């Protein structure tokens, strides 16, 4: 522990500024050592030698007690123990911990000392972790700051909203961004946002840099424009009609358009060799262009096509949109920075596919997993020849994989994350937000050069590790955007994530609220968190308020759409209350838990035949199946849902509600019910006939020639049992006399010797041994015994089973 504290001090000294004065003071802090590495090596050797010496001490137990009996050994142990406790107390005092480790009670002293050591270790390790983070460029002492904005805000004087006094002489107050009055950009889009419950279809219709031509479904606009929403049909059948129309184009619709090009992409040798990092220009000397017109976008595409690499980043907004909106795109080259207003140029962004899919141009991203999907969803853009600095950071095993850490580690730049959660729909953008967005890509090309050089150095100049990063980046390019699809079991996934246990009424309410939230969010193009946050939905499902005011009370603050639709929510809660109340036997289960029945185990009313070439039903076919089931079974709404867990015993318990419902809504024909009644009558008649036969047999034995019609008492239970046994075992008609075989008997009994006992364990026999030993004193000798009553083991049992004389 003392060595750890000294290591901490050496680490702290190493984090000071690299000036000659600090180097002079280093020799005073660690006298006798040139640098911190020499001190660490010496400390590690001392710890190892102390550990080996402690292993040679007598082990606690008989050996230690034997040595403890010698006065010399006892005095030595006490003196060394006092020195160790004194040293530990000094270390605790140095770190500001409780250090009264020597003055302790003899009875509880060991436990108290152990607690003091544990607390001190926690403090020391926490302080060492903070110093290591500061050395890596991560400062955890700064308080989190809310994003600022463009509108003139009110100055809020509070502790979390003010910088520390150490940052400057005057406390700087940050502004908070409120985007309540921002116009919805979805209203200006030329193409309406598709929030329907259908799979996502790629938007691409022109394929530049193609090695394989684009399928006819994407190039033919007539097929793409045929949508079921334009027909006068119910909304529930629209998806099914669309699926039937596009059935022949299913393989093309859901395939990656650049699958072939990515499979045949080869990284040139110049990208696998060690580069010379090209230093970035200062931001003040770099030109910045804000692009919000089609002419500027075309000129940018021409510039990018002449380059060998450029950096890309996106700014996204997801709170006031169901699928999300890409609000801004930043592109940086070696000489210039560009910021594209993607809200204004949303329908023209596909022009950049010429540069983004060029295999000779490297596109540098950081954490491109979400960016790749957003580009496909909003603009129909695809990326070929991608380099992800996040994957490179993971391959280098850096302390952090965030862009902040890379900027601090390679560029010594502290990024300002005040605008990370800002509303990027605001137009015009304030200068602070433009600078923040620009900094995300301005330094990325220099980081790209440095990380390639480090990947080669860490692998001794071999390109294997760098090639692995290129392959992982290619895997990120293969990602496809998947639209969230609502199914009847979607709410179960959310319930597993929240780890909540519901009864049948609460689970039904949760299912209905989940379906209502998803439907309204798609209609209004709002996120599910804006319509009804998950924690509020769980609160309503658990409480199940009886009045609309109770639903309002469960929400704080009340979402606007909940206040508007509170009566509809109240009806859904009432519908959940009408379900029979049953407590779930298995409240929580994991994805691999097989304790509950699978979906195939639940009874299905109608079985739809799936096509031979299709393994699973599509979303449209599942909807069509539910529609046909609703027509075939009009009482389906009264039956418990397949998601709720129903106790099997409740189905056979006449006092339960499940028993009543299952009997009330049994969909069986009249012929089946008549057959069941006939079977029940036959079983009752057979039971009566058996009872009469048993009673007749008992009467004949009691009274030989009595008539059947006479009043006779009921047969006893013993007679009934004997009659049943006689019916089961039919005796043979002719019995032949067989003499007793004395060869099988134990003749040693006549000699007075005991027979061999059975070696098997018999608890009843052992229980009687004590009584037999007491009675042995009163027994006569074997010569006086009667030959007719021999001492041996009775076939009828033990003493208590002997018949009375």
TrEMBL record:
Biased composition (Basic and acidic residues): 673-699, 748-759
Biological-process GO terms, alphabetical: DNA repair; exonucleolytic trimming to generate mature 3'-end of 5.8S rRNA from tricistronic rRNA transcript (SSU-rRNA, 5.8S rRNA, LSU-rRNA); histone mRNA catabolic process; nuclear polyadenylation-dependent antisense transcript catabolic process; nuclear polyadenylation-dependent CUT catabolic process; nuclear polyadenylation-dependent rRNA catabolic process; nuclear polyadenylation-dependent snoRNA catabolic process; nuclear polyadenylation-dependent snRNA catabolic process
Record SMART domains: 35EXOc, HRDC
All residue ranges annotated as the HRDC domain in the record: 503-583
Ranges for region Disordered: 1-27, 672-805
Gene3D superfamilies: HRDC domain (1.10.150.80), Ribonuclease H-like superfamily/Ribonuclease H (3.30.420.10)
An annotated GO cellular component: nuclear exosome (RNase complex)
Cofactor needs: Mg(2+)
Record keywords, A-Z: Cytoplasm, DNA damage, DNA repair, Exonuclease, Exosome, Hydrolase, Isopeptide bond, Magnesium, Metal-binding, Nuclease, Nucleus, Phosphoprotein, RNA-binding, rRNA processing, Ubl conjugation
Compositionally biased tracts (Polar residues): 777-787
Superkingdom, taxonomy of origin: Eukaryota
UniProt-recorded Gene Ontology molecular function terms: 3'-5'-RNA exonuclease activity; metal ion binding; nucleotide binding; single-stranded RNA binding
PANTHER family reported in the protein's UniProt record: EXOSOME COMPONENT 10, POLYMYOSITIS/SCLERODERMA AUTOANTIGEN-RELATED
Subunit-structure text: Component of the RNA exosome complex. The catalytically inactive RNA exosome core complex (Exo-9) associates with the catalytic subunit EXOSC10/RRP6 (via its N-terminus). Exo-9 may associate with DIS3 to form the nucleolar exosome complex, or DIS3L to form the cytoplasmic exosome complex. The RNA exosome complex interacts with cofactors C1D/RRP47, MPHOSPH6/MPP6 and MTREX/MTR4. Interacts with MTREX; the interaction with MTREX mediates the association of MTREX with nuclear RNA exosomes.
Protein family per UniProt: Belongs to the exosome component 10/RRP6 family.
Protein's recorded name: Exosome complex component 10
Lineage start: Eukaryota, Metazoa, Chordata, Craniata, Vertebrata
